[in-house]
Design brief:
Two copies of one chain form a homodimer. By secondary structure, chain A is α/β, with parallel strands linked by helices. Helices cover 43% and strands 21% of the residues of chain A. The model of chain A is unreliable at 255-259 (pLDDT under 50). The structure holds a DNA duplex (30 and 30 nucleotides). Chains A, B: InterPro entries: ArsR-like_HTH, ATPase_NBD, HTH_MarR-typ, ROK, WH-like_DNA-bd_sf, WH_DNA-bd_sf.
Chain lengths: 396, 396
DNA sequence: CCAACTGTAAGTAAGACTGACTAACAGTTG
DNA sequence: CAACTGTTAGTCAGTCTTACTTACAGTTGG
């Protein structure tokens, strides 16, 4: 419910925003398309487009001929109206120094530059490191600093916006000092978003992956190291009170007549546990993902291993399904992806044994770096919204 | 993001809606108040109020004198602009016939009539029974049929709007035939909402109970019979794919070295389980709630019983907290209410043992029929929204 | 094969209409 | 008398409708 009120200026702002929003969401459109979409008259659409072009937010990108008559001009949101940078920070194995992946995208969604570097956060301050990477990448993409609108960080941790601090950091170094994000914001001069890496992978999954048509879904991340859960409810991510939703790695499991064994889900399906389980079944590999990939590819005696793994996964999923009842669960992460359809079928079978299953299980459909792409998607969405509301305000 | 566009008519509609929305949410207001809230000018506010009054949606309810000058007129949304009826269907024990509670409320939130009857749904068709109750109650309240805008049903079951069917019904009779709600809608000639009783209790808890100031919260319903979970995320209830979110009674519990014992949460904290646990500790009572009430009141040897019960409750809550991370959990239902602060403290202690607890545990603050009141709150909210959008449309 | 013609659609210009704002004012009350 | 409520009059902003100009595609005739 918009509790909005105002005079004719508001009207112009609304109409102009609507036009821009359609251009951003649906791509290039003619005046006639916009007329159809907004229900506005020809002169009004013309006026709105004129103002948007003057403001540098839209431009003519071509002409289209549809039968007799003059060719209609095709308008699109200017790709270089604004840029977003995504930075994905991750622990690259227990020994290696953390690696940072980053990408710049423009308003049209195009990736304009991309990089990956190793950073030792024990010796480098996160703020300095991130600032430098962002600046270099922006320069590489040829984007003017004034057009850099948003920086989206992905961290293997949870972020609590209320206290502005990052918790459960899986990365070494000064990441968990409070106020870090504010500092970054000040240094970069842009808005800065921080989110859990698994949450951002879910964003990518919704945009371009297996969850494209899902109403809601849960994404279970089975990584080489940790595991995590992202919950997408109709396109909105559930983050929890302190950004701690989906921290199911720490979910204590119930031991019925229980001497407290303190078993949690991480002990069952975390990377080391998967490796150990594989070894028990005679499958040896360097990483959990490799072990699962071998099994999925049909190594001898693979079926029992996959079944055992699927059984463990289903334990965690049972809780998720009982609480949330998502129509779709996507398996992702290095291990999830490696498992492919074989793991998916095993999990489906394991779940069906416990209860009549009405939840679809799917495997991630993203081959690239899901976290980085998701962060970019999220960042660009933020930029889109900022542009739309900026139209609102500039007209005031 | 409003993808709204239009001409001056839209402007009028927006402004008028905004005025009505404020009247509905904040209660009686003067023109000056509305000017402040909407930012509109005096003539515009006057015009909007004139139109709302003409449409029977608002009226002058008094005058207020604030210093010199004429006394300002105080406007309020007409209480009798529309009515909502809430109907709560529940199983009253295993032997008794189901009981139905119902109430009529007006736009101002006032309860105008209320009733409670026993209905044998084995012999009476649900549609006929509900229609009759609604009609009688409406007549009792002196509300004209044309003004009855919405009927909200509360059922001890989950409702799947996609298939228009009610699942897991705890009530006997023809409740689970598909299309029932559509039928009811046709018969009553109003919009009809159906929701799980625990969800609706959560609505009441948010409006007038322990969760009034919470950002989000989970409500754990410990009833004399079943248990349930409602999840409120910033004022929106999470319902799940097929209305099955929060069906944690069926959550299978993990047995570590598991011969499948098929233990679920219902077996641990369902009514019979609570009664049995009480008996083990030498506490005998007719209902689970009575047992817990006795313990909370300080019956001898009560502490170990409460601790054991709290331990079981914490098993279920651990899963909820791991998945959702709510800032607040409210214990409700007959057993939860009976437990009072004693149970709350016991659960808090049990939870703190498992992990550093950042979640507040509270006891319901609603003494009346939470489900019925919540259904009425939900119904009236629907009515408010309908009124606001009707203003939008009537101006078109 | 080319040139002119015809019908259709894109975009613009002009005038009418709607709604909100400002400013001034009449009426009330402490 | 001063301050405040609510109305009236006039103005301004923005969109709509209608009519017009211009451009293009396809067709027809030499």
């Amino acid at each position: 419910m918009p509790r909005l009120a105002g005079s004719s200026k508001l009207l112009r702002a609304i109409n102009e925003s609507a036009a821009l929003a359609h251009l951003l969401e649906r791509g290039p459109l003619t005046r006639a398309d916009l007329r159809e979409l907004t229900g506005l008259s020809k002169p009004t659409i013309s006026e709105a487009l004129r103002r948007l072009t003057d403001a540098g937010l839209a431009r003519v990108v071509g002409h289209v001929s549809a039968g007799p008559g003059p060719n209609a001009e095709v308008y699109a949101a200017s790709p270089d109206a604004a840029y977003a940078v995504a930075v994905s920070v991750r622990d690259s194995g227990e020994t290696g120094t953390p690696s940072v992946a980053a990408a710049v995208g423009d308003v049209s969604g195009q990736v304009r530059a991309r990089t990956e570097v190793a950073v030792d956060f024990l010796r480098t301050d996160p703020v300095a490191a991130v600032t430098e990477i962002v600046e270099r990448l922006r320069a590489d993409a040829g984007a003017p600093a004034s057009r850099l609108a948003h920086v989206q960080l992905a961290v293997p941790a949870s972020y609590d916006p209320q206290t502005d601090s990052i918790h459960h950091v899986g990365v070494t170094g000064g990441w968990n000092r409070p106020g870090l994000v504010r500092e970054l914001r000040d240094r970069l001069g842009t808005s800065v978003g921080v989110d859990n890496d698994v949450n951002l992978a879910a964003v990518a999954e919704r945009r371009r992956g297996a969850a494209r048509d899902a109403d809601s879904f849960a994404l279970l991340w089975l990584g080489d190291e940790g595991l995590g859960l992202a919950i997408d409810l109709g396109g909105t991510l559930l983050r929890g009170a302190r950004g701690g939703a989906g921290e199911i790695g720490y979910m204590p499991l119930f031991a019925p007549d229980g001497e407290d064994r303190k078993v949690d889900l991480q002990d069952l399906v975390g990377g080391p546990a998967v490796l150990a389980l594989a070894a028990e079944h005679g499958i040896r590999a360097r990483t959990p993902a490799a072990a699962v990939a071998a099994a999925a590819a049909g190594a001898e005696d693979a079926a029992p291993f996959l079944a055992a793994l699927a059984g463990r996964v289903s334990v965690g999923l049972a809780a998720v399904i009982a609480v949330l009842d998502p129509p779709l669960v996507v398996l992702a992460g290095q291990v999830g992806r490696a498992g492919g359809p074989a793991l998916r079928d095993a999990v489906t079978a394991a779940m069906a044994r416990a209860e009549p299953l009405e939840t679809t299980i799917a495997v991630t459909a993203i081959d690239d770096d899901a976290v980085l792409l998701g962060a970019l998607d999220a960042g660009l969405t933020t930029v889109h919204e900022a542009l739309i509301t900026s139209v609102h305000e500039s007209t005031t």
